[in-house]
């Protein structure tokens, strides 16, 4: 595989001096009020190598990357490019010097096409006009190199989240990058797409491009890294070459103890059926003409945790969104505690005790202009509103309880939601839904963008909810998460249930049922 990226700026000679420091951060500090995001960090980027950055949410990883790419200015310290001090006043200035970033949160324009998103702000001009034909040709070539059958003229809003992630990656690859920062690039990708991306990364590094790679998928990241750095509380906790590190080393330096996602909660009653779908059928919302959920029947009991696993396109998201009321079924029924809720609105289903934590927290889970507290209390506003008046004391109690319950790292309820790390924003979405006191909690990829420590916290929350009688259904594309707290594992394939397992099964059986081959 060979991605068509001009790396002429990366090599000043025919020989690639692999390992040479091309970008260095020296004594970088960054504060937001009383929060010290970075505390005098030193960080090196080596030519032709993958430097992987590990750390919990709020450890300072993304803040440092935003500084290196010109998005944020440091409070103190300096950046050296090829040994010379530089200061970037914008991301475009950094990009002009060969530094590009793929953000964890997608920065695409949903109302524009794939082609227009890739070349937005740097259009290809010909005789004073945008050369749309050439842009389309290059966009198509990028999609082919990334092994994606995506039409460059498709609107981004019509793509699945994983496909949108591919477009974000293609946009960064289309720039003349000598240093490419990837912040959670695989968070919405299938195993096959991850494998393709890793081929791309190795092709780039072989030609001298430097990669900075941030990921919460620890085992996955170990496959690609040359050098690992662990951040903890705004400081570098440890670093080392690939040959000297393993999964336990990463986790120990991140969270201080051995990582455990937990196990299925025991010793509590699993009682009556809380949620049931009967013969549920859902048409492809993107107009594909096929059934993304195909005559599917499933029931979950109070006190039970069910994991839904499947490849991208298996119907996981569509199933959960239909149960929650975001998509309409063309056939079948949805029963909540025996009551048919198929015709209820989303708000009515929340009132009845059913809620969904969506996959895309930025688009569907949060209001960016609101504070942390306002987001947390939004779904349960009826609990502290009397006609047109809101009880601030009761609202503040809801907010404080939610912050404590899901362990949100924030200055308080008045903090801007945009001031939180990605993982803490995800916790806000979960906390908002738990504040409604649901009977059934649906979670679509609840660990997306959440670090190793926060994953354990989230799954322990789900276990505690089940012990208190909550019915929990969560979907995941990470087969390892099937073995955390789930009593049952449902494998979807092409909109149907392909297999059902308990937690004693194996990864190989789950992946075989889904149609996925084990990746070496």
Task: Tell me what you see in this structure.
This protein has 520 residues and is of the alpha/beta class. The chain has four domains: 20-98 and 177-259, P-loop containing nucleotide triphosphate hydrolases (Rossmann fold, 3-Layer(aba) Sandwich); 106-175, no CATH class; 260-353 and 439-520, 3-Layer(aba) Sandwich (Rossmann fold), CATH 3.40.50; 362-437, no CATH class. The protein is 30% helix and 26% strand. The strands form six sheets. It has a six-stranded mixed β-sheet, with helices on both faces. A six-stranded mixed β-sheet has the order 18-21-22-15-23-24, with helices on both faces. The longest helix is centred in the middle third of the chain and has 16 residues, at 191-206. Residues 1-16 have low confidence and may be disordered.
Brief write-up:
The chain is an alpha/beta fold and 520 residues long. 30% of the residues lie in helices and 26% in strands.
SSE map:
Elements: E1 21-32, E2 35-46, E3 50-55, H1 61-68, E4 76-81, E5 84-86, H2 91-96, E6 99-102, H3 114-118, E7 125-126, E8 129-130, H4 132-145, H5 161-173, E9 179-183, H6 191-206, E10 210-214, H7 218-222, E11 227-232, E12 235-241, H8 247-255, E13 273-283, E14 291-301, E15 305-309, H9 316-324, E16 331-336, E17 339-340, H10 346-352, E18 354-357, H11 361-365, H12 372-377, E19 385-386, E20 389-390, H13 392-405, H14 422-434, E21 440-444, H15 452-467, E22 471-476, E23 488-493, E24 496-502, H16 507-514
Parallel strand pairs: 3-10, 3-11, 6-9, 9-10, 15-22, 15-23, 18-21, 21-22
Antiparallel strand pairs: 1-2, 1-4, 4-5, 7-8, 11-12, 13-14, 13-16, 16-17, 19-20, 23-24
């Amino acid at each position: 595989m060979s991605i068509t990226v001009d790396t002429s700026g990366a090599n000043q000679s025919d020989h690639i001096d692999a390992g040479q420091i091309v970008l260095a951060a020296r004594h970088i500090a960054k504060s937001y009020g009383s929060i010290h995001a970075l505390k005098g960090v030193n960080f090196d980027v080596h030519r032709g190598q993958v430097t992987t950055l590990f750390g919990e949410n709020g450890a300072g990883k993304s803040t440092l990357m935003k500084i290196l790419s010109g998005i944020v200015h440091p409070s103190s310290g300096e950046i050296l490019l090829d040994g010379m001090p530089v200061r970037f006043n914008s991301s475009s200035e950094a990009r002009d010097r060969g530094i590009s970033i793929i953000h964890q949160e997608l920065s695409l324009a949903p109302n524009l096409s794939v082609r227009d998103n890739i070349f937005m702000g740097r259009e290809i001009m010909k005789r004073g006009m945008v050369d749309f034909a050439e842009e389309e040709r290059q966009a198509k070539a990028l999609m082919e190199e990334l092994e994606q059958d995506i039409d460059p003229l498709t609107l981004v809003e019509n793509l699945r989240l994983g496909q949108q992630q591919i477009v974000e990656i293609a946009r960064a690859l289309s720039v003349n990058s000598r240093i490419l920062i990837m912040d959670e690039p695989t968070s919405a990708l299938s195993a096959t797409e991850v494998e393709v991306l890793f081929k791309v990364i190795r092709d780039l590094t072989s030609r001298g491009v430097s990669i900075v790679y941030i990921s919460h998928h620890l085992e996955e990241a170990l496959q690609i890294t040359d050098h690992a750095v662990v951040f903890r509380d705004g400081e570098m906790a440890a670093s080392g070459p690939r040959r000297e590190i393993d999964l336990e080393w990463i986790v120990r330096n991140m969270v201080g103890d051995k990582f455990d996602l937990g196990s299925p909660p025991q010793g509590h009653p699993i009682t009556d059926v809380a949620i049931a779908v009967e013969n549920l059928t859902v048409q492809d919302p993107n107009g594909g003409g096929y059934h993304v959920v195909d005559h599917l029947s499933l029931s979950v009991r109070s006190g039970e945790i069910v994991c839904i696993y499947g490849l991208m396109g298996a119907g996981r998201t569509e199933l959960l969104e239909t149960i929650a009321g975001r998509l309409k079924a063309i056939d079948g029924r949805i029963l909540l505690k025996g009551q048919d809720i198929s015709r209820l609105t989303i708000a009515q289903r929340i009132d009845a005790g059913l809620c969904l934590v969506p996959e895309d927290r930025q688009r569907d889970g949060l209001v960016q202009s609101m504070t942390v507290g306002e987001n947390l209390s939004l779904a349960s506003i009826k609990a502290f509103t009397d006609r047109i008046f809101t009880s601030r004391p009761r609202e503040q109690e809801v907010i404080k309880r939610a912050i404590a319950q899901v362990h949100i790292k924030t200055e308080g309820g008045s903090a801007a939601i945009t001031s939180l790390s990605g993982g803490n924003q995800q916790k806000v979405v979960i906390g908002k839904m738990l504040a409604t006191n649901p009977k059934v909690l649906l979670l679509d990829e609840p660990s997306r963008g959440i670090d190793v420590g926060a994953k354990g916290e989230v799954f322990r929350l789900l276990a505690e909810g089940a012990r208190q009688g909550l019915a929990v259904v969560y979907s995941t594309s990470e087969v390892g998460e099937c073995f955390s707290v789930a009593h049952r594992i449902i494998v979807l394939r092409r909109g149907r249930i392909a297999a059902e397992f308990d937690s004693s099964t194996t990864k190989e059986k789950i992946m075989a049922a889904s149609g996925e081959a084990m990746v070496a």
